[in-house]
Amino acid sequence: MRRPRYTRYSLELTAAAASSPDAEALAAAASPDDDWSGAAAYLRGPDAQTLEYTDPAAVAAILALQPAGWQEEDGGRTLVFWLEEGAEADAGVAEALRRIGSLGRLEVRREPPGWETAWQRFHKPHVIGRLYVRPPWYPARDDLLDIAVEAGLAFGTGGHASTRQCLEIVQTLSPGSLLALGSGSGVVSFAALRLGFAPVTGIEIDPVAVHAAAGNAAMNGIEPVFLIGDATDPAYPLPAADVVVANIALRPILRLAERWKVVDGGSARLPRELLLSGLLVEQADEALAAFPRLAETARVDDGTWLTLHLSRRT
Length: 314
What we know:
alpha/beta, 16 strands
């Protein structure tokens, strides 16, 4: 079977593009505050208390094309994305590319075969407490709980600090039901099952990540439940769980807190244990203040990224 070929698009943003009519139209359709996908590429914004895209409208326009992959470069001033070769022949795609190009300088080049798997050489195994998180081309270890993860285009290989911190803390908790928000490629969900948690449910806003997670679950021979949706939306039915791991970002974490504000009347039952991750160290106080019915039990940080462990007050 012929492998697909890809075209690489590199958009160098210009300052003037932010006020252009095309930028305004794209911004109207963008919802950066609702994008808490574990697969997303967050950068520090002008406000140190937030994590956001440098140009949310441009990112929204690119994601609408459902690219095979994308990333921010040069501090967010350059956006790179890939489309399958020939996609530009579609009139809708061509128009979207024209509007994206109006936001700066858009360079186009054909990628050589195999670019989409070149990242594999950087994906290495990680020992995190009792867990061994590895790509599938490395063998399992008999002395550790095995988790094989092929991230593909989804976030979560055990290499990012926020993921490692979640995995460290989860190992200190008593097993019970667990809900992973921003589940990405599924690594936290798989670790929970290996550690005896059940049932385990992951919720992710990015369908690409959910597809990757389902494949990883099958590869590991385990069966968490993965759902697509925005867990911060009060209308979304949030499953009750003893433990909730929210590896997302500050803004969606604050919206999530609204669901637990009213005692016995909120839209979600307060968990016994809550892990808040995807935070910068300077965001700790704001995140803690949003959950007055929970007390801080522990925190882990590496000087930049922070994970908070909160427990229900007795």
